[in-house]
Design goal:
- GO terms for molecular function: DNA binding; DNA-binding transcription factor activity.
- This protein has two domains: 15-75, Orthogonal Bundle (Arc Repressor Mutant, subunit A), CATH 1.10.10; 89-257, Beta-Lactamase (2-Layer Sandwich).
- It is 48% helix and 18% strand.
- It is built from nine helices and eight strands.
- Strands 5-4-3-8-7-6 form a six-stranded antiparallel sheet.
- It starts with 14 loop residues before the first helix and ends with a helix.
């Protein structure tokens, strides 16, 4: 049996709104439609509660009802919200053109991401050679925080209390595997503190380096550069890291001035 999720509500929040947001979060890449039963299982809610909330979300234009399947799918208004966020972001407006220019200049991929719980969500992803890419990374796509250079750079940039809270959520099937993962993550954090960046190859033949972007008044971001169809080496990682550190310094200067 799925354990019911706890929702705060009270004076600091609205439980119905929190539950509605969790229902929207239940739709992930690769999932077209979900029925009330599937949503209830994913969100830890009763079917009666889910039925009431999905009806509200349909009426508000956030979900489309698929009557032939007795299910729901995300509505077009969800895309509109994401588009409004991207076009209105002062960070993307400031450094998005810089990222495109840097990608063309260095002939590599450049990405910007921030955290969504224990995942990293791309805000921008400039692919230098999309046809040669092993996978097509686009804005809005999520990658695991604990496995990627973006996520580990983000962990290096947040406050220690937040970092430790997140580290406690990274679990593997065995205690030994969890310890090995956390030790590797901490090595990457140490690399950021020592060299300004960390290098990770979590996908075959892909080398990525990332650095945190930490400025007052803004969320913590992570900026990365990556190359595909390469064999990882310390020399290549060092070369990419030098490019990244120099580029990140320019981005920070522009963002601080804005």
């Amino acid at each position: 049996m799925v354990q019911a999720r706890r929702y705060a509500g009270g004076v600091d929040g609205n439980r119905s709104l929190e539950r509605g947001i969790e229902i929207l979060r239940a739709f992930r890449p690769g999932v077209d439609t979900l029925g009330n039963g599937e949503i209830a299982e994913r969100c830890g809610l009763s079917r009666s509660t889910v039925s009431r909330l999905t009806r509200t979300l349909v009426n508000s234009g956030m979900l489309d009802e698929v009557r032939s399947e007795r299910a729901y799918r995300l509505a077009a208004s969800v895309v509109s919200i994401g588009h409004a966020m991207r076009t209105g972001s002062p960070v993307l407006n400031a450094i998005g053109p810089m990222m495109r220019a840097e990608s063309a200049k260095r002939r590599l991929n450049v990405g910007l991401a921030t955290a969504d719980r224990t995942m990293m969500v791309y805000l921008e992803s400039i692919r230098y050679s999309p046809r040669a890419a092993l996978r097509n990374v686009v804005a809005g796509q999520q990658v695991p925080m604990e496995l990627t250079s973006l996520g580990r750079a983000y962990l290096a940039g947040v406050a220690e209390t937040e970092r430790e809270r997140l580290l406690k959520q990274f679990r593997r099937r065995s205690t030994a595997a969890t310890r090995a993962l956390l030790a590797d993550v901490r090595r990457s954090i140490g690399s950021v503190e020592r060299d300004g960046y960390c290098a990770v190859s979590w996908q075959p033949a892909v080398l990525a380096v990332a650095t945190p972007v930490v400025l007052d008044g803004l969320p913590v971001y992570a900026l990365n550069m990556s190359l595909q169809n390469v064999d990882r080496s310390d020399a290549l990682a060092s070369e990419l890291g030098a490019y990244l550190n120099a580029f990140a310094a320019k981005c920070k200067e522009v963002l601080a001035g804005g």
